[in-house]
Amino acid sequence: MDEQTQAVRIRRRRSRAEVERLVAEYEASGLDRSAFCQQRGLSLSTLARYRRRQGQTAAADEKRWLALEVSSAAAGASGLAVWLPGGQRIEVSRGFDADTLQRLLAAMGRD
Fold first, then answer.
1. 36-92 pLDDT, tens per residue?
2. Which domain holds residue 32?
3. Count: domains in the chain
4. Rounded-to-integer distance, Cα 37 and Cα 20, Å
5. Are residues 42 and 86 in the same domain?
6. Residue 105: partners with Cβ closer than 8 Å, 6 or more residues away
7. Which of 19, 29, 30, 87 has the greatest count of CB atoms below 10 A from its CB?
8. How many CB atoms within 10 Å of residue 26?
9. Dist CA 101 CA 92 (whole Å)
10. Are 111 and 105 in contact (CB under 8 A)?
11. Is residue 78 a part of any domain in this protein?
12. How far apart are the first and last CA of the chain?
């Protein structure tokens, strides 16, 4: 094989779930973009595109209405419980501190 043949790589499209997982892993990793991309064999531009695309999806998701189910058992036990997409759950007791909840939501990027 010559150098030109070795440089050609077969590109594979990642599924939406794979892209979401990669972005979530990057954000949870604490690594800088270069280190994460080297570790995963990604280019910086690919990670940037995935993050941008997911951000646009998240922005569109925030504008949708959510279906709510009122449960007397959950409300009686904790005051308020919210299940978010992706399986995340926020639960607060009666008389919770609204400022603390606002800071939590801002830290999660959902304010």
1. 999 999 998 999 999 888 876 566 555 555 566 666 554 455 577 777 766 777 777
2. 3-62
3. 2
4. 15
5. no
6. 90, 111
7. 19
8. 21
9. 8
10. yes
11. yes
12. 54
> Which pLDDT band, with edges at 50, 70 and 90, does 95 fall under?
confident
| Region 8-14 average pLDDT | 71
Q: Are residues 8 and 54 in the same domain?
A: yes
| 56 and 97 both lie in a single domain | no
Look up residue 80 and give its two tokens: 């308020």
Task: For residues 50 and 27, give the distance between their C-alpha atoms in angstroms, rounded to a whole number.
Answer: 12
Q: What does the block give as tokens for 12?
A: 């594979």
* Spatial separation of the C-alpha atoms in residues 78 and 62, rounded to whole Å: 25
Quick one: three-class SS letters along the chain?
A: CCHHHHHCCCCCCCCHHHHHHHHHHHHHHCCCHHHHHHHHCCCHHHHHHHHHHHHHHHHHHHCCCCCCCCCHHHHHHHCEEEECCCCCEEEECCCCCHHHHHHHHHHCCCC
The residue type at 89: R
Amino acid in the structure at residue 103: R
**What values do phi and psi take at 36, rounded to 5?**
-60, -45
